[in-house]
Amino acid sequence: MSNAIMLKFTQTAQAFPPKRGAAERADDFLEIATPYILAKAEEQASRCSQCGVPFCQVHCPLHNNIPDWLRLTAEGRLEEAYEISQATSSMPEICGRICPQDRLCEGNCVIEKGFGSVTIGSVEKFITDTAWDSGWVKPLVPLADRSGQSVGIIGAGPAGLTAAEQLRIKGYDIHIYDRYDRAGGLLTYGIPNFKLEKQVVGRRIARLEAGGIAFHNDFEVGRDASLAELRERHDAVLIATGVYQPRELAAPGIEANGVIAALDYLVASNRIGFGDEVRDFDALNAEGRDVVVIGGGDTAMDCVRTAIRQGATSVRCLYRRDRANMPGSQREVAHAEEEGVTFEWLSAPDSFDADTGNVSSVNVARMRLGAPDASGRRAPEPEPGAPVVLPATLVIKALGFDPEPLPLLFGAPELGVTRWGTLRVDNRSMQTNIDGVFAAGDIVRGASLVVWAIRDGRDVAKSMHQHLVAKARAAARKPVAA
């Protein structure tokens, strides 16, 4: 087939789905962009250059076959485009919404310089949303019957859900254990609705439940069962807890009321969105308050944009490096600025003032970038001069997350960890030092992207399948006692 329908990037401009106005979207928690119409999705997909070395695919952690499904979309063959998209991704419509495409596929599109990249994420979202609406998303059906073996998965986030789906397809009995009352992990409780509406996550989970996967919510390993007890119940166990321990900040006055952790703040907001009653929500609500968020990652962006929607009087984000060196998505920064967030670049909290025990202001030290640190990034260092005082009646710490002490929590002191507290695994098999116990996602690689968790979930499922097949064969060869 000729390329006549493709290569339109020289005559068709880049066009993302239109965003709702900043004032309108700041009044609700709905997703900020309207969906593509079919003609627009086809038009934007036709901009793909179908290059010989598809860097978009190379730089996607899942190595999605992006040029293929872009071409099929341009040709109006959406169901086929969906089939190719879902063949390598367990949650394409979620990745299309929350992946930092500007740092991954779109940021490496060969036409990005000069013409603007293909809007890969928006087309990916369109394809799979259309598939759900059209009934093309097939039920989860096991391809074999291996119900004699079961797998226990600790953590119902993206890595755990992905591994569960892949192993259920192989025919194993799957049980997922999660501390929250709803499955989804940070997809459900960490990411705000304006980036990922919860029915999008809910329909994925409902498909897994309908496919025979058992969910055990409100279940804490170490409280409701030890790791050893789960190993007794199952033929293999996967630890996919993610990393939830917030990094702390050492500064005078940090203990004041109104200085809170980002995850506590986001979970409370998402629970309100579900209609839950949140105890002491007033302490976690930005309405009518001067809000300062500390951090420059995507979690910080989620916090500042949530505070705007809750009706904060002012919202500022402090980041100790400059804009070019921040770890979060530049698109998220642009969305936040449109919605009224002020960014204080090269700024770090020096101390906090309190009025009758409640935080009232932040004393901010101005920073400059010095020599590169161990990671190669220029390290921030204080500029001479007195701190700048910013009003703050709610301070949200969004400094990142570290692993919880799982060997202690799980009653498994023998479980091997690295010096960073992440679980130590064999790089090839993804098995821990305990036989039959595997680990995947952020608990192995540290705080990272959802797309990497999905990749890890798919990879670990393959390793676990090999382990379980070998285990079943060994059991079959074992002589029966007389």
Blueprint (SSEs and pairs):
Elements: H1 22-25, H2 38-45, H3 55-58, H4 66-74, H5 78-88, H6 92-98, H7 112-115, H8 120-134, E1 150-154, H9 158-169, E2 173-177, H10 186-189, H11 198-210, E3 214-216, H12 227-233, E4 236-239, E5 245-246, E6 259-261, H13 262-274, E7 290-294, H14 298-310, E8 314-318, H15 330-339, E9 342-344, E10 347-355, E11 358-372, E12 378-382, E13 388-391, E14 394-397, E15 401-402, H16 406-409, E16 437-439, H17 442-445, H18 450-477
Helix pairs in contact: 2-4, 2-8, 4-5, 5-8, 6-8, 9-18, 13-14, 14-15
Short key terms for the protein model shown above:
482 residues, alpha/beta, Fumarate Reductase Iron-sulfur Protein, Chain B, domain 2, FAD/NAD(P)-binding domain, iron-sulfur, 4Fe-4S, 4 iron, 4 sulfur cluster binding, metal ion binding, oxidoreductase activity
Describe the structure.
The chain is of the alpha/beta class and 482 residues long. It has three domains: 8-134, Fumarate Reductase Iron-sulfur Protein, Chain B, domain 2, CATH 1.10.1060; 150-243 and 403-477, FAD/NAD(P)-binding domain (3-Layer(bba) Sandwich); 253-400, FAD/NAD(P)-binding domain (3-Layer(bba) Sandwich), CATH 3.50.50.60. The chain is 35% helix and 16% strand. The protein is built from 18 helices and 16 strands. Helix 2 packs across helix 4, helix 4 (66-74) packs antiparallel against helix 5 and helix 13 (262-274) crosses helix 14 (298-310). The protein is globular, with a radius of gyration of 24 Å. GO terms for molecular function: 4 iron, 4 sulfur cluster binding; metal ion binding; oxidoreductase activity. This is NAD(P)-dependent oxidoreductase.
